[in-house]
Amino acid sequence: MDERVITQKELTKTRRFGRFTPAYKLDAKTVVKTDDVVRFAEAEAMKLVREKTSIPVPEVYNVYTDPDTGHPGIVMEFVEGDCLADAWKDFDDNQKAAVIEQFRDFFYLYWICRRHSLRRSAFTDNLGGYGPYKDEASFTKGIATTINGSRNGGYINTVCDIVVNTLKGHQIVLTHGDFSPRNIIVRGSKVVPV
Question: Whole-model pTM?
Answer without folding.
Answer: 0.66
